[in-house]
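From the pipeline queue, job 12 of 40. The input is one protein chain; the requested action is below.

Action: predict structure.
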Amino acid sequence: MVAIKSHQADKVIKDPQKSTHAYLIYGSDEGRINETAAILAENWSAKHGDGGEIIQIDDRSIADNPDIIAIEVRSVSMFGGFSAIRLALSNRIKPDLMKELIELKPQNLLILEAGNLKPSSAMRKLFEKSKNAAALPCYPDEARDIAGLIHEELTDKGINISSAARNLLTVSLGSDRGISRQELIKLALYAHDKPQIDVQDIEAIIGDSSQLAYDQLISLIMTGQGAAALSKLDRLLASGMTNAGLTTLLGRHLARLYKLSAMIEAGRQASEAVNSLRPPVHFKQRDAMVQQVMKLKLPVLKKAIFLVQETVARTRLQSAFERMSTERMILILSKMAGGR
């Protein structure tokens, strides 16, 4: 299988081929990874599953029964048809096991969800080179991707939107696919009986969106306000937001700060560097971004990025400690941002 590019992934999941028996879905956008796996499983089941089940195997189940993946891949669904099996990559899932299962060409589909794997990753190489498998990358949405998402959730459903509102919506939505789609669904419900969505509608619905709520929390962390950040986290979690969503967006924010810091060290002005980022920084966050990049230097940002990556790895392996790990990360980052 030829390595699939990020912009080609949507086309692949819309029409999954029967000759592909396993998919690896990886990247830095956790929301998009989850969405891609769910849509792929549904589309494959509808086209090739003949009414079979969609099964999810968690890490606890693998710990209790190491053979469960091989058993489920070979099993016949009790309801008839063939199953689509979803599982998340962990230390218990080795490339040798995946290679063995892929070579079996099972009638059941195997979907493996992973984090941001390097090109040198043995698992990624296995899926990219196998004739019976495919690796689908999921990276943060750029302006072109956001425009396509807006078209899919609004225009394709007969909802009109003015040009000015479309432009504002493009810069207001973040780069996390899952969050962006939730906001568009909410906007569509709000405007279902309106002849056209205008700028005022965007400001009313998206102006206090989950993306911006996360931005406010990230701003508290990056200005050293650890106690206030924990209080904000409590409110966001109570409203249905997730620790994983924060960690993903925080890691992306730090990566952008690192890029900006490198640009400034190379001689660019901070405001000019911030304005050059794509997708563009939300207008409400630009001043804060400039202040943060002027204060935090490359060595500190490198340590901060490593801390977030460490937190992601820990929570994937020990989901019971997700909240504790997130709070620990917030407090350490707040101290780093405050110069302590």
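Job complete. The chain has three domains: 6-138, 143-205, 210-337.
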